[in-house]
Write a structure and sequence with these properties.
The protein is built from three helices and 14 strands. It has helices at 139-145, 163-173, 186-196; strands at 14-21, 24-28, 34-36, 51-54, 72-75, 87-90, 93-103, 110-122, 125-129, 150-154, 177-181, 201-204, 209-213, 222-225. The strands form two sheets. Strands 6-7-8-9-10-11-14-12 form an eight-stranded mixed sheet. Strands 5-4-3-2-1-13 form a six-stranded mixed sheet, with no helix packed on it. This is Zn-dependent hydrolase.
């Protein structure tokens, strides 16, 4: 671990979330188990994670050459077309996946089970990373996801789900805290925030990292914008 990256210890009910950029977050548990979402070759966390989740929409969401120190590499797809169904426990962290479909970028069709939503349970929190979501969620998918406290949301409105569709997903999930990602530019981020401003409170954070627990979740659903790219 680099000497410059020595975060303060977490209480047993806390989780540290750091927005690395694009769709990559570093999630750290009280026992410092580290999960990196949409781990790839371009946007990387400052430490090698214990668990890396990936989706295959574009090369900025996965790598086929992960660092050897990663203990669990979880692809959000399977080469045989069946749904990825991860259910992994490492230390005090539990990670599971819910399969979703993806656009076929070459033929314009749909690849069933081509991506996954990853749910990370750590501390007292349940965190859902929506990945490169291309469609609204079915009742079965919502049931498989279950109750979540924090949702990491792609808000570009074009490469992933359109703005109205993403709002429908968020209203179905009913998470107290939502954090935007995958927005490319301030214009794209502001376009999404303008769409949800009448529905949710919005807060702009000064740093890309926060410590959160069940006790510190907002009383009313809120968007927290972490600086990133």
């Amino acid at each position: 671990m680099p000497a410059a990256f020595r975060p303060a210890a977490l209480a047993p009910d806390q989780v540290r979330l750091t927005y690395v950029g694009h769709s990559t977050f570093l999630i750290e548990s009280p026992r410092l188990v580290r999960v990196a979402t949409d781990y790839n070759d371009y946007v990387k966390p400052p430490v090698v994670p214990d668990i890396a989740t990936m989706n295959r929409a574009h090369s900025t969401h996965y790598t086929l050459a992960p660092e050897p120190g990663i203990k669990h590499v979880l692809h959000g797809w399977r080469d045989d077309g069946k749904p990825a169904a991860h259910d992994v426990t490492h230390g005090d962290v539990h990670v599971r996946s819910v399969a979703t479909n993806i656009r076929d970028w070459t033929g314009g069709g749909t690849v069933r089970h081509g991506n996954a939503i990853f749910i990370v349970e750590a501390g007292t929190l349940c965190i859902a990373h929506l990945g490169h979501l291309h469609h609204t969620l079915t009742a079965q998918q919502l049931a498989e996801i279950g109750r979540v406290d924090v949702v990491l949301v792609p808000v570009d409105g074009s490469y992933t789900l359109d703005l109205d569709g993403m709002v429908e997903v968020l209203q179905a999930l009913k998470a107290p805290l939502m954090i935007p990602m995958h927005y490319f530019s301030r214009y794209t981020l502001d376009r999404f925030l303008d769409r949800v401003r009448d529905l949710y409170a919005i807060e702009l954070a000064e740093t890309p990292s926060l410590v959160v627990s069940k006790a510190t979740l907002p009383a009313q659903p809120k968007f927290l914008v972490l600086p990133g790219r």
